[in-house]
Amino acid sequence: MRLLLALAPLVSAAACAPGAADDPSRVEVGIVFDIGGKDDRSFNAAAWAGVKCAETGFLPDGRTSCGRPPLGIVLRDVEPGTPTSIEPAMRAFAERHYDLIIGVGFAQGPIMEVVARDYPDVRFAIIDGVIFEDDGKTPKKNVASLVFNEHEGSYLVGVIAAKTSRTQTLGFVGGMDIPLIRRFAKGYEEGARSVNPDIRVIENYVGVTDAAWNNPGKGKELSMAQIGRGADVIFAAAGNSGLGAFDAVEQAGTENGRARRFVIGVDSNQNGVKPGFVLTSMIKRVDTAVYDIVKKVVDGGFTGGFHVFGLEGDGVGYVVDEYNRDLVSPEAIAAAEEARTKIVAGEITVTDAMAQ
Amino acid sequence: MTRLDSWGLTPLLRELRFPLVAVVAAFLVAGLIVLILGDNPLDMYWLLVGTAFTWPDGIGYTLFYATPLVFTGLAVAVAFRCGLLNIGAEGQLYVAAFAAAWVGIELADLPGVFLLPICAAAAILSGAIWGGIPGVLKARFGSHEVINTIMLNFIAVALVSYFTQYHYKVPGDPILQTAPVGEGAHLARLGSIVPGLPERIPLNLAFVLAVVACGLVYVFLWKTKWGYEIRATGENPGAAEYGGISVRTQIVVAMAISGGLAGMVGINEVLGYRHRYYDGFSDNYGFTGIAVALLGRNHPAGVLVAALLFAVLQRGGVQVDAFTADVSKDIVQILQGLVVLFVAAEAMFRFRIRPAAERVA
């Protein structure tokens, strides 16, 4: 009987649910996640936070406000799970003439290229990828390519790292050795050298296959080796493998209540992963980028082509919050802020390893 | 009636009775779960089944998804008829897909009339070899095919991944896939043949091949001496041996045919769809093939129907995930699990019902 009572509200709720019929007057947005799914606590999660904010004005937990107004959209999402499901998912939205279809991650590039060609009137957005017309040069008109100036954000954390390091030796642990990650490394190194031209930066990569994103053991091993060679701040741009670097600095322990080695997080705010050991995080505001592109569709201002998110407009940056406020010196923050102003003003140009 | 019996259809229909009940029961239970989650089950049924049969996208994609499952279902069924459990279809199809791509890249300049059949043969042959290895191991040393096929799955996946990464990837490509195969190795999409079917739907001639393969497997198993020998071995190896059949040979032959059928997935994937080897392309086709064969009672016609059912679920799963508020694609996995569970539970029903049925007969 108790079970029946518990079920009753559910059944009645189902009976009067509006079902799958969506209101056509509202802007319809469909998002197709990467294989990782929307709860990866990193890249996909940030995209999910962005669209959820546009739908409800709240973060995915449904309680915390995301600080921006809801846009009154109808939101539908797919977690493909397998590579063969990405294309039909994208097409399912396109067939229903959704107003915006978002693809998460560069791996969806080849698929979106084909689908966007079949549906020239439907608007698409891809995160971290670029899609061209058939000539391979002009950006595709109905696709917004959302890309980030990771090198600029990395420059700032490079400055902070150099200002913090006592050994004047820094470490960089990259995931897969691809141009995108070289871009993080180069910016980090240049930022550090702007503080001390003689600083040593040890650069290692976990691997050259996809598996490199998901090998925390190897990430820890590399970090331990870097610590052994004197590195006391390690920037980990290695997806899940980066968590190995967090373990390594924790293992190095503390001295008079302060960590002896630090790690710098990436993509999302990872300051709270190992409080006390995380100097700061180099964040990519995927959530902001996604929200903005949805807003442009709602306002009728959508344009295809490259949408670059840099320091200006806080598309990339570093985080200071309650976890690391006591770890970063005011001097380091001042130096980073100065560098930010100069980069935005064009006085400093950070080398883009992807453009080389 | 006797004419039908000579086709083996009446027993098949009788065989399909239980799977049918199992499917209906699974759908009812899944509907109940959806109701508890707070969505409308009728909407879920429509998204799951209805969207799979809309023209042209629904039908096109459903048949496209069914294609690899027909091949792997047949592969498992043939081995099973010989009393063998081929858990290695997954590894066999990976090796075959890579082999097809490899030949398509190496001989890219050949004209299609040569290249296409060579690539297809490469897929079938490499699958047959990969499936034949555990067959030989079983026939010669008596080592169990279940263990060996599972182990060979790991080796196959790692091996083709290694070759893709270090030898056949386009330099600088962040996606783990090979270079494209030559134009001549492209299998025509059905959209270019069937009027009204848009060419963007990846359904291709491999589906026709899958249907033909069903027919060939049927004829082979029930209308030829070799098929009889395989079935005899499966039914009772001792009696088969006594009757002059070399059980060892049958084991190797059945596993090789099984592997070759699994390898045909590579034709659909590489020659018909992506035109390159894409690492990790298989959505557990090899393992779903076991469920397909189980549901289809190890009969080619049953396999075809079961593959279609699983394809409908796959197509509908995406739709359910996208267009319901609370139900995720996991409901489809639950549904698949329920179907298999209910089919397996049939043994219990059969145990109770059969004596009664025999009394009537």
By CATH, the architecture of chain B is named Orthogonal Bundle
Q: Can you tell me the overall shape of chain B?
A: globular
Number of helical regions of chain A: 10
Structural class of chain A: alpha/beta
| Secondary structure tally: strands of chain B | 0
Number of domains of chain B: 1
Unreliable sequence segments of chain A: 1-21
Low-confidence stretches of chain B: none
What is the CATH C level class of chain B, in words? Mainly Alpha
Name the helicity range of chain A. Answer: 25-40%
Biggest β-sheet strands, sense, barrel of chain A: 6 strands, parallel
**Relative strand content of chain A:** 15-25%
Share of helical residues of chain B: over 70%
The CATH homologous superfamily of the largest domain in chain A is called Response regulator
Order of helices and strands of chain B: HHHHHHHHHHHHHHHH
Q: Quote the distance from N terminus to C terminus of chain B.
A: 15 Å
Structure in words:
The complex is a heterodimer of chains A (356) and B (361). Chain A is an alpha/beta fold and 356 residues long. Chain A has two domains: 25-148, Response regulator (Rossmann fold); 150-283 and 316-345, Response regulator (Rossmann fold), CATH 3.40.50.2300. Chain A is built from ten helices and 14 strands. The longest helix of chain A has 17 residues, at 179-195. Chain A is elongated, with a radius of gyration of 22 Å. By secondary structure, chain B is mainly alpha-helical. Chain B has a single domain (60-313), classed as Orthogonal Bundle (ABC transporter involved in vitamin B12 uptake, BtuC). Classes of the chains: A alpha/beta (356), B mainly alpha (361). The interface between A and B is large, with 39 and 37 residues.
